[in-house]
Amino acid sequence: MPRLYVPSALRELTDGQSDIELDGQTVGDMLQSLESKHPGTASRLTSSETAHGLRHGLVVFIDGEQFRTGTRTKVDDNSTVYLVLAQAGGT
Amino acid sequence: MAVNEFVTKTGDFKVIGKRPIRHDGADKVTGRATYGSDISLQGMLYGRVLRSPHAHADIKSIDTTDAEAYPGVHAVITSEDFPNVESKLVEGGEAGSQDLSYMSANKMARGKVLYHGHPVAAVAAETRDAAEEAARLIKVEYEVLEPVLSARRGRDKSSPLLHDTLYTDTEGEKDTEPSNVAEHRIYGTGDIEKGFAEADIIVENEYDTATVHQGYIEPHNATALWREDGSLDIWCSSQGHFWMRNETAKILQHPVSKIKVTPMEIGGGFGGKTLTYLETPAALLSKKSGRPVKMWMDRTEVLQSTGPTPGSWIKVKVGATNDGKITAAQVEISIEAGGFPGGPLHPSCLTSLAPYNLENAQVDGYDVVVNKPKSAAYRAPGATMSEFAVETTMDELAEKLGMDSLEFHMLNASKEGDWRVDGPRFLRVGNIECIEAIKSSDHWKTPLQAATEPNKVRGRGMASGFWGNATLTSSARGRVNEDGSVTLVEGSCDIGGSRTSIAMQMAETLGISEQDIVPIVGDTDDAGYTAVTGGSRTTAVTGLAAYNAANEILAKMSTGLAEVWEVKSDNITSQNGRFSCNGHDLSFKEAAALLHDNDIQVTGQSTVTPKTPAGAFSCQAADIELDLETGKIEILRYTIAQDAGTAIYPPYVEGQMQGGVAQGIGWALNEEYWYDGEGHLRNSSLLDYRMPTALDLPMIDTIIVEVPNPDHPYGVRGVGEVCIVPPPAAIANAIHNAVGVRMHELPMSPPKVTAALANAGKLQT
Predict the structure, then answer these.
(1) Which of A44, A56, A61 shows the shortest C-beta gap to B89?
(2) Are A62 and A80 in contact (CB under 8 A)?
(3) pLDDT for B486
């Protein structure tokens, strides 16, 4: 079952768990599963205003690879999913 | 070819790693290169901006009557001429996403000014002098408000609000009371309390860093032509013309398809030219006057009104066992975003603890609005200040443990698979290799000689730093010409020599000389979409696009030759710039000519968005001499070791390393925005804003460490930013080594150093 790394700020909503096994074939499925287990969590990570369905600035990291496909990103049983802020830079 | 369909090649290169003549060199040194200020169009007007004399004030009224009547004036605009845009987050810029209404209000103040120099109105006239005189005739009535001039003050709930509708967002949850804190981010791993409980020794400090500017030589400029059919042409100096187009389209609510942005040569940017400033006022003045309008800033405007890197207030607490193992680290970073939200908070947090492998850590970040210009990116935005705080604290911890700082680094160094502040694990990185490079350097192995004058002391310090490097999207297109040259059209503005570094990767792939590649930076109607030249991404990502385009060219040439030679293309061998099959053997040039003669034209193109950013570490050592009477610090010797992955064009890599260190030394020792109590910037010239010159710096020794990026065909990592991260900490640690005084504030200028010396009873008079 894929795992989701829970951002620090949301661990108070997940009984302190820093990563959780969640059902789903996409990141969106996993977040729905997260919401059903820990109400109030998914709304902190998602947005209806973005094309990718995640909060502005968030990108998906799975096994070291970055995906900008947001909630549509496919996962498999071995995936560990991180939702992190995108970063650019100066030079 | 899809991204990542390659095996990373290292060594045995024909082109990569060599030091050829750069493609743009002759034009630059002879003055033939065309910059934004060189643009001249038929009927062109000149624009000037009226800026706020106040740091924080409500605008009660604006009267443009006298300005409009001034001879030679064709148009005057205020925020009333900008479309009303809704308050909504849009992707783009260094902050990742920005509120569109704030983006618009930063171009032209809407109801309120939020920093000294905030644009209030703009004028287009027959001459620049006439525009400036007319701008002075605009009557603006202000109600002056108390300014907020530091992150410390902004965090104070009693500080006056800059925005009545700004509510702190804590990881997706909004506060109900308005605040000057736009955002609170929280990162962590392990059990921080348990970690500190396990520590034998704990060091805790606070730090303040000043606002500093990127110091690019060429001021911002933009020329706009708004035609009757609504099409808009912009020529400007930027780090990313596609970003300029997109931002202009959003602010002006104008279709992207109607806007063409042509990138001019750029005289430096370092992150400061990733946002629009004059593009939208120039466009609206052109629309209103029916004439092309050219605008450029003077140095005072650049310093007052464009985005510097923010000041910060940082707390660090670190604990370790007596054998030197870190048990816990805690960092709190408050960033001065400027008049609008969106400072480099996330990268500041992300990089702060990156050099260390930590089981228990917490980083809190606060994005605080203050009455200073909206901050912009500056080389590894946010990282230099957080690493100054962390690396000086770590040095103090090592000192208290009786350990050599370098050995302390090595003992706790992060590596592949270790935790990163934002959750994911490090990929292959060269942190340890950089520390080892400094350890084995001639600099580190040579004992520091004592000062020869009685009022001077010497010291040595070191520090490490990290920058994540960006990926984003890049495009490249190659066209084979009949003489065997290849025209390369790319979308990356060439700010640091990327034409050559990208051309070299295409040449290596094709098996030809880099001098046979003709690199061109295309405009937004010509080149494929390409994100900003920033995040140290261009040589790696646009280079990958060029590599893919070159492979497509090779495949198409083989197909073409198969048709001419009447063989199967699969049987044609393409290697080292030669095509061979069944006794046929042609060089690339001969093949190009043969294909042209047979009416076979070949192009290759690629657009890529890599999925794996390749972060880079740097470790640096500084020797300083400190004058105990004046507080002046001289840099005696400086060495930088940096992981470049693979150095495509070593002179550029060395230049980036030296340039980053030079800027880091300026940030460490002298540079700061100096505001008076009312929020007026009082040193807005390069005479008073003290950047280092060649006379202030020694030769900066470079050690290129090459730990190839496994997700790039040639192993490239970005090199433009991490070099600026360690200098302030390395110098602060050298000061302590020299005189036993810890510096907690940037810049470490003579007044601050003498104050610290006096406080420690070490100032000589």
Answers:
(1) A56
(2) yes
(3) 98
User: For residue B523, which phi and psi values (nearest 5 degrees)?
Assistant: -80, 180
Cβ atoms of B379 and B215 within 8 Å: the answer is: no
C-beta atoms of B362 and A8 within 8 A = yes
**Cα gap B533→B269, rounded to integer Å:** 10
Q: How far is A88 from chain B (nearest CA, A)?
A: 5
Taking the mean position of all CA atoms in its chain, how far away is CA B507? 28
Q: What are the pLDDT digits (tens) for B387-438?
A: 999 999 999 999 999 999 999 999 999 999 998 888 888 999 999 999 999 9
Q: What is the DSSP string of B511-559?
A: TS-GGGEEEEE--TTTSPP---S-TT-HHHHHHHHHHHHHHHHHHHHHH
Instruction: Please give the tally of structural domains in chain A.
Output: 1
What is the residue-wise DSSP string for B198-247?
T-SEEEEEEEEE--B----SSPPEEEEEE-TTS-EEEEE--S-HHHHHHH
Write the single-letter amino acid at B173: E
Give yes or no for residue B49 having a pLDDT over 60: yes
- Residue A68 sits in a domain whose CATH number is 3.10.20.30
Residues on chain A bordering chain B, Cβ-to-Cβ distance under 8 angstroms: 5, 7-10, 18, 43-45, 49-50, 55-57, 61, 64-68, 82, 84-91
Helix (H/G/I), strand (E/B), else coil: B334 = strand
Q: Is residue A91 part of a domain?
A: no
Burial class of residue A78 in the structure, from the number of CB atoms within 10 Å of its CB (0-12 exposed, 13-18 middle, 19+ buried) = exposed
Mind listing the pLDDT tens digit for each residue in B113-123? Answer: 999 999 999 99
Confidence label for B562 from pLDDT (cuts 50, 70 and 90) = very high
- Choose, out of B4, B99, B171, the residue to mutate when testing the contact with A (most A CBs < 10 Å): B171
Write the single-letter amino acid at A56: H
- Burial label for B720, CB within 10 Å (0-12, 13-18, 19+), is buried
Structure tokens at B344: 């480099």
First to last CA, chain B: 70
Please tell me chain B's helix, strand, coil percentages from 3-state DSSP, rounded to the nearest 5: 30, 25, 45
Q: Which domain holds residue A19?
A: 3-85
ipTM of the modeled complex: 0.84
How many residues comprise chain B?
765
For residue B366, the cross-strand partners are B184, B334
Please report the domains of chain B, with CATH numbers, ordered by start residue: 25-33+471-608 (3.30.365.10), 42-380 (3.30.365.10), 434-465+614-765 (3.30.365.10)
**Whole-number Å distance between alpha carbons of B492 and B245:** 14
Separation CA B383–CA B714 (nearest Å): 27
Which residues lie closer than 8 Å to B88 by C-beta, 6 or more apart? A49, B99, B100, B101
Looking at the domain assignment, is residue A90 inside a domain? Answer: no
B375 vs B117, B305, B341, CA distance in Å? 13, 10, 9
Contacts of A61 in chain B (CB under 8 A): 423-424
Preceding amide of B747 cis, omega within 30: yes
Residue A13 belongs to some domain of the structure: yes
Tokens of B253: 């609510």
**How many angstroms away from the CA of B350 is the closest CA of chain A?**
10
Residues B81, B281: contact at Cβ < 8 Å? Answer: no
